[in-house]
Amino acid sequence: xxxxxxxxxxxxxxxxxxxxxxxxxxxxxxxxxxxxxxxxxxxxxxxxxxxxxxxxxxxxxxxxxxxxxxxxxxxxxxxxxxxxxxxxxxxxxxxxxxxxxxxxxxxxxxxxxxxxxxxxxxxxxxxxxxxxxxxxxxxxxxxxxxxxxxxxxxxxxxxxxxxxxxxxxxxxxxxxxxxxxxxxxxxxxxxxxxxxxxxxxxxxxxxxxxxxxxxxxxxxxxxxxxxxxxxxxxxxxxxxxxxxxxxxxxxxxxxxxxx
Length: 259
Known about the structure:
Rossmann fold; 10 helices; globular; alpha/beta; transferase; single chain; six-stranded mixed beta sheet
């Protein structure tokens, strides 16, 4: 099991070090939020596990946020409820407390994803909704040509979709989530048609996989991309992505309901 971080992070990334700009670069995208809302259905009470700064916590829901990182809890806007300091693997709630449970871009950071998912299933009477990336397709993104170690890290961290489904049990559906061209949630694939934005160190820092390579390696990767943009190589290969209204990448929504 991973050792807890100084700021209380229980996962594999140190958000005390990398989470300072998260609320600037990782703003919830309303179209992704709509997909999450559809998956939650008629739920009114929802536990958001690994809630971070409060992304995708819809105002009309009664949300209980769970977040172990002090740095992330501190960035939650004042209008959102204070987050409970706890980890996914040990949720401090009785069985069937909530109508539903959700987690977004978090399950890959847990020390024991299967245990955390079982806890979500335990405390939710209805759907459990997981926004995650399919590790089988992470390396298909163009960034792999410039930052292979970063996406290798991503692919290793994300649990297999089959493992998520097995941990949750019940009736499980897996739906791809189209990424809009102007996506406001700055994960790597959100910049599929705006590669220049990944030259911003703050944007890279807000994608936790970049923190698993040393700074010199990260700078070299960004340098390769900068050169490809300057000499036209990137556009020669991928210019059509700049015109796509959305991109179907590794982002998926897993929904499980008890049978």
